[in-house]
Automatic annotation (TrEMBL):
This is Crotonobetainyl-CoA:carnitine CoA-transferase CaiB-like acyl-CoA transferase. Keywords: Transferase. The keyword Secreted does not apply. Gene3D superfamilies: Crotonobetainyl-coa:carnitine coa-transferase, domain 1, formyl-coa transferase, domain 3. It comes from the Bacteria.
Length: 404
């Protein structure tokens, strides 16, 4: 079956998570993604522990399947000449290097589109490509803090907490992917490419959607409430006798179901709890009373009682539980692939299913420089020339690095 993005060639200049995650999403749906890495070092995340088989970084593996790796020195004139040739054949470029890094060597959008007007150039930055912080270094933690997300994460009586997932990095990668796919659709009509401008900050502000509208509608900045929702009670985590669970009551019908499930049907009509507004006003009292009751039974009992009343409830799962969860496995959300050098590698699989052109994992994360020879041969560069470039340190090929 032909892949959805079959025939789309992507040149990826990116490290860590945001840019690589974007490239991986495109690769999963069939794009040929060529990752450009530094000879000898590669993407810095290759060195981040822990490792599969003691060598393959878990972090690198998480965002670089289905790609080809070429090693070319971006600081050499000969290397830049090669990359400009590659850019002429590319449909998409992904750049999450520091703002201006590729511009200084003539590999920015304005320079490359002159030779390739169909080029879609996706630039992913930390704070955005303009404004007073455009040139500032950024990372996931910094943007979670700067965007306002950390001010909402954590318990009310404690300090702000970083969200456990790299939401700023991965969010930027997903928004960048949406931009690229939109630009590809537009190109099919216009015949020309365009610049896709994404950033970690803009992704986080967008994802704080209802929190900003709450602020704009009330004038009050949202605050940390732990696991509870700002406008619904009960809507949070509770400790059962054996584990944590979340109870999500967001309609009056569900609230009355909670009251019946905990053996307090009279609470449904109690004037202190009878509607959402008064429950919010009496949040602390109600939550304390519910917490005392929930501690008396295990999660399985509360799941049975609450689900029978139509109230959403679920155990707070740890990652090891999720990895073997029947629903997760039924949806093929955990993928297992064989790496020729490192053996079995497991990771989350593609999250979006298409009925006619599904995503697939065709290749494991590449070895550093594994495809340099293949890609440069495709440009018409002869073997002798490649050997000279390798001797001069301008390119690196996997076989040579493996010998080293």
């Amino acid at each position: 079956m032909k892949a959805a993005l079959n025939g789309i060639k992507v040149l990826e200049f990116s490290v860590a998570m945001a840019g690589p995650f974007c490239g991986m999403l495109l690769a999963d749906f069939g794009a040929e993604v060529i990752k450009v890495e530094r000879p000898g070092f590669g993407d810095e995340s290759r060195a981040w522990p822990p490792f599969f088989d003691g060598k393959l970084s878990h972090y690198f593996a998480a965002a670089n399947r289905n790609k080809k790796s070429v090693c070319i020195d971006l600081k050499s004139e000969a290397g830049i000449v090669i990359l400009r040739r590659m850019a002429q054949q590319a449909d998409v470029i992904i750049d999450n290097f520091r703002l201006g890094a590729l511009e200084r060597i003539g590999l920015d959008y304005e320079a490359l589109r002159k030779d390739n007007p169909r080029l879609i150039y996706c630039r992913i930055t930390g704070y955005g490509a303009s404004g007073p912080l455009a040139g500032e270094r950024a990372n996931d933690l910094a943007i979670q803090a700067y965007s306002g997300g950390m001010s909402l994460t954590g318990e009310a009586d404690r300090g702000p907490v970083r969200m456990g997932i790299s939401v700023a990095d991965i969010g930027a990668g997903m928004f960048a992917t949406i931009g690229i796919l939109t630009a590809l659709v537009a190109r099919s009509e216009t015949g020309t490419g365009q610049l896709v401008d994404a950033s970690l900050l803009e992704g986080q502000v967008a994802m704080l959607a209802n929190h900003f509208t709450s602020f704009f509608s009330t004038g009050a900045a949202p605050v940390r409430r732990g696991s509870s929702g700002p406008g619904m009670v009960p809507y949070q985590a509770f400790k059962a006798s054996d584990d944590w669970m979340v109870v999500a009551s967001f309609t009056e019908r569900m609230w009355r179901g909670v009251a019946r499930a905990v053996g307090k049907p009279e609470w449904g009509d109690d004037p202190r709890y009878a509607d959402a507004k008064v429950r919010l006003a009496n949040r602390d009292e109600l939550v304390a009373r519910l917490a005392e009751i929930f501690r008396t039974r295990p999660v399985a009992v509360w799941e049975a009682r609450l689900k029978a009343e139509g109230v959403p409830v679920t155990r707070v799962n740890s990652v090891d539980r999720v990895a073997c969860d029947p629903q997760v496995l039924a949806r093929d959300l955990i993928a297992t692939l064989r790496h020729p050098a490192y053996g079995e590698v497991r990771m989350p699989g593609p999250a979006v299913k298409l009925s006619h052109t599904p995503a697939a994992i065709r290749m494991p994360p590449p070895m550093l420089g594994e495809h340099t020879h293949e890609v440069l041969s495709g440009l018409g560069i002869e073997e002798a020339t490649m050997n000279e470039l390798e001797q001069d340190g301008i390119i690196a090929m996997y076989s040579a690095m493996a010998r080293a």
